[in-house]
């Protein structure tokens, strides 16, 4: 039987995805049609990005699964017309590696105080020896695929890392806490906090005036998760008071970040334009094809979204 696979992402992504997808699908050894256009009632699988024009899944009567090419699913998870399984992207070779590199780079920037030497217009000779990694506790809020990978990299460099998640975890070589009660314990000790949670009603404003006050004075915030995880006004107040020394933000409530947003001009904020970890077609295509294989073999899908939890 021929599988009909619709690529429903922005048209400009097709050029970079088509060849890797065909290579990965060819390896399955099953006949398939892969296209950006297809009669809705003929589609078996949809390779999907939430900014696609497809927002009503009702006409896709034979659809077996929607395979999201993004890690974040907040823009699709509540779609009531989508009733088949939805998967999110976890790709250790590509997306995860990108996040690990981005987070490690920004943690090291703040840990080492690199800015003092990169931006030094007065040519000041002011040696300040940074502490070593074991003296710099890091918290990672959101201890899933990306949070754990970042924790492993930072632990490998010697940072004492504590992860925080919704459910309790026991992961060899990593330290973690969980649940609302655990947040205070984790933040009280963290000099650098990395946010890698999904955007759900429960995670909104996880960092707010109260929780920011739990962190040691002069701590750093790094957010490659999602904008709504932080109360923006509370963060700016904490930066202005010195409670937070610097915030590196990759994600925002509104993207692109409006030109007049206070984050742009704030001297203690670094804005990066949602580039922490993009999906890499070459490796992601293999994950997508593997899920099609699993679905056809009636095996459990990888990275299926829990629609109730919202991620
Ligand atoms: P994941 O594997 O689903 O992990 C999410 C983690 O967040 C899990 O540990 C989960 O806890 C935790 N969490 C969820 N709700 C929580 C709550 N209410 N309280 C405490 N912890 C909670 O997701 P992932 O693949 O690591 O991706 C994480 C996020 O990164 C994505 O959702 C996306 O928003 C963001 N992202 C950003 C970029 C970028 O370029 N900036 C790229 C990719 C992804 P449990 O383990 O208990 O379920």
Work out the strand percent. 15-25%
Round the mean pLDDT to the nearest integer and report it.
98
What is the CATH T-level topology of the largest domain?
Rossmann fold
* SSE run: EHEEEEHHEHEEHEHEHEHEH
Largest sheet: 7 strands, parallel
Overall domain count: 2
Weakly predicted, low-confidence segments: none
Question: In DSSP terms, counting alpha (H) and pi (I) runs of 4 or more, how many helices?
Answer: 9
SS-derived structural category: alpha/beta
Distance between the termini: 32 Å
Residue share in helix: 25-40%
Strand order of the largest sheet: 8-7-6-9-10-11-12
Work out the number of β strands.
12
Bound molecules: NADP nicotinamide-adenine-dinucleotide phosphate
CA-atom Rg in angstroms? 21 Å
Shape, per Cα inertia axes = elongated
* CATH architecture type of the largest domain: 3-Layer(aba) Sandwich
CATH class of the largest domain: Alpha Beta
CATH superfamily of the largest domain: NAD(P)-binding Rossmann-like Domain
